[in-house]
Design goal:
By secondary structure, this protein is α/β, with parallel strands linked by helices. 56% of the residues lie in helices and 7% in strands. It contains 19 helices and six strands. A four-stranded mixed beta sheet has the order 1-2-3-4. Strand 5 and strand 6 form a beta hairpin. Helix 1 crosses helix 6. The protein starts with a helix and ends with a strand.
């Protein structure tokens, strides 16, 4: 009887383990394969148990109903914790699927692997992965101020930016390793909705008045196929730029630095980041970040209260405006090219209503 019971128990245990493994595999595949279903549901909500899910939904409801409450420090800490937890969940799933290497992830926990997008101030345990069109100038300004406080009337210039880059390049392996492994270090990554980043890059880098636009047409011959005189301010219309990236963007060699995926540049599943900063939420997060960084002000606060919010166009409205004439098929291809940027940072885009999500 005992032997039969033990066998039955063992079979039940094996069956239970198989069921748990099947559920885990399902969610892993949901994240990496079922790309056509994930966009209308915030990925972060899919990864929590029922109790946590209710808390997340409750928080998001509170955020929509009471912006002033959401700007309080305790709400900012919730946002940052949720972003980081979500990033870790997705990265763990990706590593189990072989998308990223666990051995490399472990190695970078205490080994300095230089990344050209990093800004560092070892003396204050500060590191940021800075991306184009994600507040890079402001983070360079802050890095300069952390390294050596800017004197009154000193304007941040290209020499300061160059010095920031040189310090990162000259960082010793030992100091870099300490920065990676120090539990008290600030290791951040500044991100933005992939489509907002795309619009901003197009608007600035493909403006007719800039020589950079001519450089792009020369450097990327296929882009010339999409150039015309329809837009008097840009060498390509936004719709044609979207078509170019949809057609050729799966090969990073066809993309200028400003249009490369954030995941490709900062490798968030390999480096031990502990802060995910969303540009869209910066106006409500800046006071809490000031405390975390132990600084008196953030770069944009130099312009006075409300500067950041006043200078940020509503991303929902602007994306609807720019994407209303982009073919749905093209939008889906763009979402595939920037897939990991969407999933890793909890961004979404409803292709039917042209509504971006995950902005907090």
């Amino acid at each position: 009887m005992l032997a039969r019971w033990s066998t039955t128990t063992l079979l039940l245990v094996i069956a239970s383990c198989f069921m748990v493994a099947s559920i885990a595999l399902y969610f892993d595949e949901y994240l990496s394969i079922k790309r056509d279903q994930i966009w209308k549901v915030a990925p972060s909500i899919l990864l929590f148990n029922q109790a946590s899910r209710r808390q997340v939904i409750s928080f998001e409801k509170d955020f929509e109903l009471n912006i002033s409450a959401a700007s309080k420090p305790e709400f900012a800490s919730v946002r940052f914790r949720r972003r980081l937890d979500h990033l870790h969940h997705v990265c763990d799933a990706g590593i189990r699927q072989g998308i990223w290497e666990q051995a490399e992830r472990v190695r970078r926990q205490d080994t300095w692997v230089q990344n050209d997008n990093f800004l560092v101030v070892p003396g204050t345990n500060f590191m940021m992965c800075v991306l184009p069109k994600c507040g890079s100038s402001s983070w360079h300004w802050l890095t300069r101020d952390l390294r050596e406080p800017l004197s009154a009337g000193h304007e941040f210039g290209w020499q300061d930016r160059q010095k920031n880059t040189q310090i990162m390049q000259d960082l010793s392996p030992d100091d870099g390793a300490k920065l990676m492994s120090n539990e008290n270090a600030f290791r951040g990554i500044s991100v933005r909705h992939p489509f907002s980043k795309l619009v901003s890059g197009w608007n600035q880098k493909l403006a007719r008045e800039l020589t950079y636009a001519s450089f792009l047409l020369e450097a990327y011959p296929h882009m010339q196929e999409y150039a015309d005189d329809t837009d008097k301010l840009h060498v390509l219309t936004f719709e044609n730029m979207a078509e170019y990236i949809a057609a050729y963007g799966h090969d990073v060699d066809n993309l200028d630095y400003h249009f490369l995926p954030m995941e490709y540049l900062c490798q968030p599943c390999l480096y031990p980041y502990n802060y995910v900063i969303k540009i869209e939420s910066m106006g409500n997060d800046q006071n809490w970040l000031t405390h975390e960084l132990n600084v008196e002000r953030m770069p944009w606060q130099e312009k006075g209260p409300g500067y950041f919010n006043a200078n940020q166009t509503n991303p929902v409205n602007i994306l609807r405006t720019y994407f209303k004439n982009v073919r749905k098929e093209t939008i889906l291809k763009l979402m595939d090219i920037y897939y990991y940027d969407f999933v890793l940072f909890g961004y979404t885009f409803d292709v039917d209503t042209l509504t971006p999500g995950g902005l907090v």
